[in-house]
Design brief:
- The structure is a single chain.
- It is built from 7 helices and 2 strands.
- The protein is mostly helical.
- It has 2 domains: 30 residues; 92 residues, Cytochrome Bc1 Complex, Chain D, domain 2, CATH 1.10.760.10.
- The chain has a two-stranded antiparallel ribbon.
- Helix 5 crosses helix 6.
- It is globular, with a radius of gyration of 20 Å.
- 17% of the residues are buried.
- Bound molecules: heme C.
- The site of heme C has 28 residues, from helix 3, helix 5 and helix 6.
- The site of heme C (HEC) has 28 residues, from helix 3, helix 5 and helix 6.
Length: 126
């Protein structure tokens, strides 16, 4: 009998953890965003010669810079998905956005700048 209780306790703990994870996933999809971040002169230059090459060309198939509507569905995936697709590449989007000179921090900022939003304050402070 005693082992029975122990097993059901573990099951309960497992269920709790699974529920918590589900909550976290949900929180991410309703993440709130602020206005796009500011870039330094150097970052703007880098952004222009890399990201805008495709994201400023309507024939490239990339969601366009400054076109808020085409970014809504992208943001709906959550920032982590956009970030991982930028680092690893995704469909016609090359890994690192073909920007070998960009640091990971640059890329984080460029995604937000390109998509016209910034992560909320709480996320930024982490
Ligand atoms: C060679 C062209 C090209 C360059 C350069 C490029 N992109 Fe993209 N990017 C694309 C295309 C095409 C897509 C759309 C992929 C799809 O959904 O089919 C895309 C999609 C994206 C997405 C959305 C991914 C998603 O999950 O929906 C992000 C974010 C992004 N690019 C960021 C960047 C950033 C930041 C840079 C500059 C560092 C950059 N891209 C440079 C072509 C490019």
């Amino acid at each position: 009998m005693k082992t029975h209780i122990t097993i059901s306790r573990w099951l309960c703990l497992f269920a709790c953890v699974a529920t918590l994870n589900a909550c976290n996933a949900e929180r991410e999809s309703v993440q709130t965003y602020g206005p796009p971040p500011e870039l330094t002169e150097e970052q703007l230059e880098l952004f222009d010669v890399t990201c805008v090459g495709c994201h400023g060309d309507k024939d490239s198939g990339a969601p366009l810079f400054g076109d808020g509507a085409s970014w809504d569905a992208r943001w709906a995936k959550g920032f982590d998905a956009l970030y991982s697709h930028t680092i690893n590449g995704f469909e016609g989007m090359p890994a690192l956005g073909s920007c070998a000179a960009c640091t990971k921090q640059d890329l984080e900022l460029f995604i937000q700048y390109l998509g016209g939003r910034s992560l909320n304050q709480a996320a930024k402070e982490n």
